[in-house]
Design a protein that fits this description.
This protein is mostly helical. It has 2 domains: 20-51 and 225-256, no CATH class; 62-221, MetI-like (MetI-like fold), CATH 1.10.3720.10. The protein has helices at 2-25, 44-50, 53-86, 92-100, 107-121, 127-149, 152-163, 168-179, 181-197, 200-205, 212-220, 226-255. Helix 5 (107-121) packs across helix 6 and helix 6 runs antiparallel to helix 9 (181-197).
Length: 256
């Protein structure tokens, strides 16, 4: 039975990572097309990608949008979770449901709704519009993570701080936030990863300044190339690096 378990595990991992392995392998293709047979290896496609100004500009745009939208979603999610967890409000269950509801809605529907709303108020497609869209999809994630992490021990510490004369702002800054640091970091890094890879909202809500996934899509319109494999491999590498950092700095401390 143990042998069958290892075989099943190997097949499952192979099924999951085979496309990624092919992507990375043919990013080193010494030819014009990323298809068999494999001719290489060569790193010229990585040199071309890193020397492409449009790609590097899109990379910077993605980093800015991901960092800014994740920070805003984190702050709003933290305040919403703190309020709904600590204050008894009429209809709080409905409020929590409404905050989490965007997680069940297609990104395409959200993007179309935001595009219509932005056109109505005169906000043109831009990186700011894409950032607002990413806040909309990441806020429910941040709220869910932080709300689930709030326990009775934290509430007791907050009460003790208030009894000692601390203002509400000091309680949030010096008690609530430090006690929720692992959850805050997890929410931020997961939001950053989702924003970094997101395409549909960024595609519909940007025009001239675009994010990296949109720039990659533009490259694919001209056909397959090892250069697209190279930039895809770099995106995958950044995403994996973020998750590895998150695993060793946050999740491990939470388990301990």
């Amino acid at each position: 039975m143990r042998v069958l378990g290892w075989i099943y595990l190997a097949l499952a991992y192979g099924f999951i990572f085979l496309p990624v392995g092919a992507l990375v392998l043919f990013s080193f293709q010494d030819g014009r097309l990323p298809v068999p047979p494999f001719n290489g290896p060569t790193v010229k496609w990585y040199a071309d990608v890193l020397g492409d100004r449009d790609l590097m500009a899109a990379l910077v745009n993605s980093l800015m949008v991901a960092a800014a939208s994740s920070a805003v979603a984190l702050v709003l999610g933290f305040l919403a979770a703190q309020g709904l967890a600590r204050v008894a409000l009429p209809g709080s269950v409905v409020m929590r449901g409404l905050l989490i509801a965007p997680m069940t809605v297609s990104y395409l529907i959200i993007a179309l709704g935001l595009l219509s709303a932005f056109n109505h108020i005169g906000l043109r497609p831009s990186l700011m519009a894409a950032g607002i869209g990413h806040v909309v999809i990441n806020l429910p994630l941040c709220f869910a993570i932080l709300f689930a992490a709030m326990g009775a021990h934290q509430q007791n510490a907050e009460r003790a701080a208030r009894d000692l004369g601390a203002s509400e702002l000091r309680v949030l800054w010096h008690v609530s936030a430090p006690m929720l640091r692992p959850a805050l970091l997890a929410a931020f890094f997961l939001s950053f990863t989702f924003s970094w890879d997101e395409f549909i909202i960024a595609f519909l809500l940007t025009r001239f300044d675009v994010t990296l996934p949109v720039e990659i899509w533009s490259m694919l319109r001209s056909g397959l190339s090892p250069a697209t494999n190279a930039i895809g491999s770099l995106v995958f590498l950044v995403s994996v690096a973020l998750l590895v950092v998150l695993e060793f700095t946050v999740f491990r401390k939470v388990r301990k």
